[in-house]
Design brief:
Blueprint: E1 3-11, E2 20-28, E3 40-43, E4 56-66, E5 73-82, E6 105-116, E7 121-122, H1 149-162, E8 166-171, E9 177-185, H2 187-208, E10 211-213, E11 228-233, H3 235-239, H4 243-253, H5 257-261, E12 286-288, E13 295-297, H6 299-303, E14 310-312, H7 321-334
Parallel strand pairs: 1-5, 12-13
Antiparallel strand pairs: 1-2, 3-4, 4-5, 6-7, 6-9, 6-10, 6-11, 8-9, 11-14, 13-14
Helix pairs in contact: 1-2, 2-7, 4-7
Keywords: ATP-binding, Cytoplasm, Ligase, Nucleotide-binding
Subunit structure: Homooctamer and homotetramer.
Domain GS beta-grasp: 4-86
Amino acid sequence: MTKCKLEYIWLDGYQPTQTLRSKTKIEDDFSGKVEDAKVWSFDGSSTEQATGGKSDLLLKPVKVIPDPGRIGTGFLVMCEVLNPDNTPHKSNGRSTIHDDDGDFWFGFEQEYTLWDPETQKPLGFPTDGFPAPQGPYYCSVGTGRAVGRELIEEHMEMCLEAGLNLEGINAEVMKGQWEFQIFAKGAKEAGDQIWLARYMLDRCGEKYGIQINYHCKPVKGDWNGSGMHANFSNNLLRTCGSKEIYEAVCQAFEPRIKEHIDVYGADNNQRLTGLHETQSIDRFSYGISDRGASIRIPIFTVEHGWKGWLEDRRPASNADPYMVASAIIATVKRAKLPAGAAS
């Protein structure tokens, strides 16, 4: 008989930014299959999700992966939060996604900052003042430029060992800032994988005594903020071969600025200023290979006969990928396509 450690992971009810919670359940000879993971419960009154008088909420497993960070047999169990009657809790962003057939594919570029808990500054920043201006840190290598690589490499290996579809990592524009990329077919699957990767990153941070800062503008001034760029496509965008269809889809986003910004992360006004490779938060634009636009049309898409994907550059690093995907899907489905175009 093998004692298996199942780490049940969920999102709490804190606003404006939800955080991860988890607790361990011991099971005998667990198969590793999500259908064999039992529904569990927790005290919602301790996570801003219920009152003390009606505190029990349910954890419904939605994805199970091996836990590479534990000795012995362990699994990470991503869960949705349900009310006692099995309806989705109001904090459950995953339940808002309408992509049951997996038509939508998402690639999230998750930026974050390694944060020194003693100095309350990015890792690598001097205690007093600032390092040299940004420029040499993006995709950098070498002491004094790339910082925290040991943690970053360990996180990458954990994601790959756990079976997540991690597609790459790189140092970002601000010193101490990094990024990982995850791609998945299906919006819910993409969101699950981002949250599980964030969980493992936080666990790596615990080991090294480094905080993972997801705030979208952790350092004010002439420093890049942190985003979670959302690359997305559906079958139409992957196959249409039509510039007109791409423009129609992009134009569908313009009247829905508020609906997107409302779920694209807290304090995003500090990041979306029109500077540092962003468009202003109250404006909308799109363009080919334009990193200063709200939505970038990748040059790959154009060079492949308008068959590919789009990138929404507005989501902040602290946004919920479930809610980002939900908003994008809703807008794409509202697009007024040219006559004769397949939906």
